[in-house]
């Protein structure tokens, strides 16, 4: 792409990398060239875009952060122009960036992205994984075309694709019909970051149940720790069902449902290739009715 100001292109990469050296290596240009581009842009705008810290590297100033958001929107518009031009040629060219919570990658995106790349080999796909909060932030800041995350979605546009719920998992077989009550005395609960966010957002109780809890980065780690009797895991029912394990499942109280949806500033205004990828994701969920939003059931056998 050549329409967007060359200095702005370099500025976006430096802001995301936080390093002139890494940006130069990525773009195959010299470090002085990168530094000059940033200097020229600062002079052109008459603004200081970065604080230069010996230990932390380059840190965006407050106004620099605003310029970054606007530059990303400009890059997105440029990308849309190229995609529109290439649309009649079976999406020859273009790029789509998405963000998703890891569980979506495990049971959906891994299969959908393979089919998408087979069908559109010249389209570049970038995937970012993170917590529900991180995914929403990536969408809000225009870092991605769309995200797939847990509700609530705030002011973002969304299309629901799954409805899941949280359960407790334990290596020990508890009494029949046991219900794990999160509002009672603290237990040794294990949650991943996304699970913690969903739990706190859905419960109208104090967070005392977190007093002895272990918080990990990935949901699969919750299952692994529970397998070794490190505590009672609180995870998505869907994750527990699709991940091989020997854990016993128990309902929790208060009940926590967690909806998963595709989120964007305006879903109808996605770029052509983003619309096609979204269509394939929705098609996958429809074909796999046992995982789809319409098949939700809170029963645990």
Report helical residue fraction: 40-55%
Kindly state the mean pLDDT as a whole number?
Answer: 86
Question: Can you tell me the overall shape?
Answer: globular
| Rg for CA atoms | 22 Å
* Distance, first to last CA: 55 Å
Instruction: Please tally the β strands and state the result.
Output: 13
List low-confidence stretches.
292-301
**How many helices does DSSP assign?**
10
Order of helices and strands: HHHEEHEHEHEEEEHEHEHEEEH
Largest sheet: 9 strands, mixed
The helix/strand class is alpha/beta
Oligomerization status of the protein chains: single chain
Strand percentage lies at 15-25%
Gist?
The chain is α/β, with parallel strands linked by helices. The protein is built from ten helices and 13 strands.
How are the elements arranged and paired?
Blueprint: H1 6-17, H2 20-27, H3 31-45, E1 50-53, E2 57-60, H4 62-86, E3 95-100, H5 102-119, E4 124-129, H6 132-140, E5 146-150, E6 157-170, E7 180-181, E8 189-192, H7 193-202, E9 214-216, H8 219-227, E10 232-236, H9 237-242, E11 248-250, E12 252-253, E13 257-264, H10 272-287
Parallel strand pairs: 3-4, 3-5, 7-12, 8-9, 8-10
Antiparallel strand pairs: 1-2, 5-13, 6-10, 6-11, 6-13
Helix pairs in contact: 1-3, 1-4, 2-3, 5-10
